[in-house]
Amino acid sequence: MTAAVKIASDVLQVSDLRVELAGQVDVLADVSFSLAAGEIVGLVGESGSGKTTLATALLRHARQGARITGGHIAVAGQAVLELEGEALRLARGGLVGYVAQDPATALNPALRIGALLRETVLAHLPKLPGDAVQQRIQETLVDVGLPDDAAFLRRFPHQLSGGQQQRVMLALAFVLRPRLIVLDEPTTALDVSTQAHVLDTLKRLCRGHGVAALYVTHDLAVVRDLVDRVMVMYAGRLVEVTGRERLFSAPAHPYTRALLAAIPDIARRQPLQAIAGHAPAPGQRPAGCAFAPRCARRRAECAVIEPSLSALDAGHQVACLVPHREVLPRGDVAVESVTAPGEGVLLEVQGLDVAYDRQVLFDVSLQVAPGECLALVGESGSGKTSLARAIAGLGENVQGQLRYGGEPLAFSARQRDARLRHQIQYVFQNPYRALNPCQTIAQTLSAPLAHFFGVRGDEAHRRVEAVLARVSLPARVAGLYPQSLSGGERQRVAIARALICEPRLLVCDEITSALDVSVQASILALLRGLQGEGLAVLFVTHDLGVVRAIADRVLVLRRGRVVEEGSVEQVLGWPVDDYTRTLVAHSPRLHLGG
Amino acid sequence: MPDHAHRSPRTPAWLAWFIGRLGYGLLTAWVISLVVFIATQALPSDPARVILGPDAPLQSILTLQQQLGLDQPILVQYLRWMGAALRGDLGISLDSQVPVAQLLFGRLGHTLALLAGVLALVVPLALTLGVSLALRRDRPLDRWGLSALILLKATPSFLLAVGLVLLFSMPGMGWLPAVSILDPQLPLWRQLPSLVLPVVALSLSALPYLTRMVRASMIEALESDYVVAARLRGIPERLIVWRHTLPNALTPAIQGVALTLRTLVGGALLAEVIFSYPGIGTALNAAIQMRDLPMIQGVVLVITLAVVLINLLADLLTVLLTPKLRTARRVKMIRRNRRGIRPWWRRARSTPAQEATHD
Amino acid sequence: MTDARWLADPQVRRGAVITSWVVLVAVLGPWLAPHAPTAMVGPVYGPPTAGAPLGHDFLGHDLLSRLLSGGVSVLWMSVAAATLALLVGGSLGLLAGFSRRRLDQAISWAADVSLAFPDLILVLLIVSMLGRAPWLIVLTVAIAFTPGVIRLARGSAVAVAGQEFVEAAQMMGYSRWRILFNEILPNILTPLLVHFGNMLTWAVGMLSGLSFLGYGVAPPAADWGLMINENQAGLLVQPLAVLAPALLIAVFAYGTNILAEGIGRVSARIGEKQP
């Protein structure tokens, strides 16, 4: 049993939890923490940090290939790791609820909502009479903000919106009245306003039912208003555990500080700082502190001694030999625009309509000046990607007018003059599909050189190296295939492919949405630098924080129409349109009132 | 995601899809009949000579050709044949002078009995095996099972059949008839032992594909997010397998069964010949050797129509068993690509509205 | 680079070894055979002796000599049929994937229609119609396999063409041929290769089946499928005469099969790394 004194109100006690892959490689080690009833705790980490592994370990589940090899987990006094068979089944769901990341895949497509809920109740309370089951289901549906009529219960998951699907997941967890609920990035797939509503519901439910919640996320800003405490995870270890206010005002671990500095904030423009280097993969942890190689404060002993999580002061634990003790300086340095946008108009769009099955863009007009960064903002289905594709010459069924440098521009890239074509480049959202897996990076990059400029041989080689240096990649990358690169590196190569064409306008379609925040920060910094060199950027995004970090002007799209347009300060600071207002109000922010 | 998608219209959308699919099937069947007719007419043989024998005088051959309508243009011949075929008259067998339809009817029954036996054996077996291998993924049983299946898959099906015939013609193995020569006087159900070996041979060759398909789709379903979520909700394992996994794994299996049936129709020919089983395959083999044209046309027509029908049924079942397709406002089984954006070479010219996807 | 990764897989190596072993027997066999395959040198169904380690067959040919000479026909015909189907079907499939809707529908539909004819029946019909010359048999087997290749090639090409790197190439304004050969073709080679392996397996089965039915290679030439048919009657006296050719056919089919499966599995594993 654990040495820790059990506090009556502690719903969850975890001590020395360890999860291994084959070959005693640990993905998670020395994890100890506790949760009180009704408390919501955020678990924050980047991809590969082990946060999802920790979340499912609380239900004694490990993904294929991984094993829980040590430690102790007690939920409401029950030792979860010692449970087997029927007792374990009843604990899952009954004692600990789980809400998965993507509701679209976590709901069985072949089962109706009512069947799912009924089955879940009956699996745990087989003796409950039918009308009691029905009553309980309806209560829960009302609780999570869903209709409770028979027609709704007869729907299949694909007939619900994303927000409704995630509420169904919440209902499936809460209908059993568990003591603890584990949520694995439940709102990543949702739009900001839907996300805000789901988070509100979650908070109300946890407080109302006295349920403890562990909320796993990669984005600190999302949990800003939700959680009581935050645990930060890095390379399979908890590195900092503290109250919410303390975490945002006086983070002690260098990694936490770096993470905070990398997150774009809607409230104010701050210089985003990327974290140099990579997080170590499982099995490649360096001796000593795992963060030391990337840490600016490291000392000689950091490479030798592995710091354990210990109390800095009351309610604040940190795993660092030289923790920050001072309050985080309020970065009031408002960053000025890098460049004053150039004179004139580079690209002009007038009265653009796009229709597939139905019309997705209505009479959209915009202008981009040379060297300017214009952000296109909208939720999913707003038509922002269709607009970007139309400008890049990838759109179909486009009507209206495009003018580039004063001259009319064809809608299809193929029909554009080659001398113009290389000036407008496009970077795709998904870096994993943007590069041909059968070509080396050098081949991918030198093809446009030969195509547009007739440059081959040594000169091409030199230019490829130069462009790789421009996107901060080492020259040896040229000989590699895409599959040996990480997502962030691939996105850099994709940007390099655009840059090598010597563009004047770069269209970026959600290019950071598949990346971790620290990688996103470095990509945004790169774009910012390029813009300083005179490149105009059209940046498509759903994240207003990113808009604040990078854009000069912003254009808000809603259901295919422009609802607001103006400078970033103006639109984000004093939005005029109702829709923009709700968007701004619901966007997660790091600094309250800042 | 449109919220009004659940509103059910008076006629379900899949009905419109099905009518279109049915038309497509009929068109295919018609083209097949055309191909069969023209191809068999091209056979370098003269039915009149086949009937009258090699020594018949030229005059009587010419007369017979006229009687058979062989001197008319091929299109007229086709229309006449087609019209008769629609009435169920497939002509007279040149070899036995019996109407083809009558001959085929009996043979077809035998082949259908054979295929039914194979399906009754293979489908439950493949499901059980596939599911149990999937549930024991990467354990010794799974690995050995897979190796055995690959071995079975690689062995040409006629070798399996020949092996069985040889095995049961050994002394002391007389408890099952090695060849399946049926007594035409007795009904088939009283001669069931004769069916055993052909059924086993065909089942063995059909088993690997179907089993591996069930196993793969079971594994995919077992690893899906919704199964993990159901496990973590404390749903009993029994329900996870039977309610959450199997129904989703079965949909691809329907197409698998259809494909198996299609290959079986061909494979049955070899097996029937090897076991001397009086089915449609032996009939075709004999007809080809005798150059019995109406018989060949009849058999091939029946087989291809059966394949068209099988495909149609499989597609219909797939749509009806997949809620997302069944409830869609517009059913379209072929997906364009992941993001529903048409490749560039398909663009322009055509109107966009026809290409709706539901995903 | 991909070849090295494939060979790292034990199953691929095993398949390659088995396949090349049978290929060696079949190709070098005619030179190693002690007797001509049609020379009657011993008693009918004679048992193994010192001079004839496998005995004699139904006409008194030396079984070993016939076995060594009887592989070439199966081998070259199945390779030729599968290659032909791959080339024709691959080109038609790519053409379908890359043409405007009309032509695509026409090709896909033609493939659908011909899929309604079961392979073997199609082959039987054509062979019985036009004769049993080896090149004709190869041609008909290839015709029977082509619709499957068309479907596969078209499907994979359209799937690859929807990926962003192809759109990027299109935006750069590269020519269609260049996009086809540089961006798309290399990415659909693996599924086509796996299918090629499977076709080899089927072709071996189908060709030996045809020989067995009497529509294949004409006697007295030596052919593994034909040998099974010829020697059936003497099974109890001289089982080797049936079992040996059957075994060789099965081993060759097995080798090509696990080779194809191994390659498919390895590339699926490589593909998994990219979400």
From TrEMBL, chain A:
Enumerate the spans annotated as ABC transporter domain. 12-260, 333-584
From which domain of life does this come?
Bacteria
Gene Ontology terms for molecular function? ATP binding
The alphabetical list of record keywords is: ATP-binding, Nucleotide-binding, Transport
Matching InterPro entries: AAA+_ATPase, ABC_transp_ATP-bind, ABC_transporter-like_ATP-bd, ABC_transporter-like_CS, Oligopep_ABC_C, P-loop_NTPase
Question: What Gene3D superfamilies has UniProt attached to this entry?
Answer: P-loop containing nucleotide triphosphate hydrolases
Is the keyword ATP-binding assigned to this protein? yes
Stored Pfam families: ABC_tran, oligo_HPY
Q: Which PROSITE patterns match?
A: ABC_TRANSPORTER_1, ABC_TRANSPORTER_2
Family stated for the protein in its record:
Belongs to the ABC transporter superfamily.
Q: What is the name attached to this protein's record?
A: ABC transporter ATP-binding protein
Q: Which organism is it from?
A: Pseudomonas capeferrum
